[in-house]
Write a structure and sequence with these properties.
By secondary structure, the chain is of the alpha+beta class. The chain contains 2 helices and 3 strands, in the order H-E-E-E-H. It has one domain (about 5-100). It has helices at about 5-10, 85-100; strands at about 20-25, 55-60, 65-70. Strands 1-2-3 form a 3-stranded antiparallel sheet, with helices on one face. The protein is globular and about 40 Å long.
Length: about 100
């Protein structure tokens, strides 16, 4: 189901005691041309939050607040199926779901 992120945090779907929000976002470019920005190398997954191009962002929500965020490193083909995309996401989710 596609819903507005604002609607989720406005409480239109009830209180979120524990949820995951997944969006596809660009990094804010502050007026710069996004194609002139330097790209993060595929192997540099620790810098995934600096990805300029469209990429998945997973937010862990507890009691209506975002408590953790995981950025999947950008992929110009928008497939996100290589180990550098999948393995860090699996580790992020395993760490959070195991902690519940």
């Amino acid at each position: 189901m596609d819903v507005s992120v604002d609607a989720i945090f406005a409480g239109h779907f009830g209180a979120l005691s524990h949820a995951y929000l997944i969006t596809l976002d660009y990094r804010p470019h502050a007026g710069r041309d996004p194609f002139s920005a330097s790209r993060i190398e595929r192997h540099d997954v620790a810098r995934a939050a600096e990805s300029q191009c469209l990429h998945p962002i997973v937010r862990c929500i507890r009691d209506g607040e975002v408590v953790e965020t995981h950025h999947v490193i950008e992929d110009l083909a928008s497939e996100w199926k290589e180990p550098e995309h999948v393995d860090p996401l699996k580790a992020f989710l395993a760490g959070r779901l195991g902690a519940r």
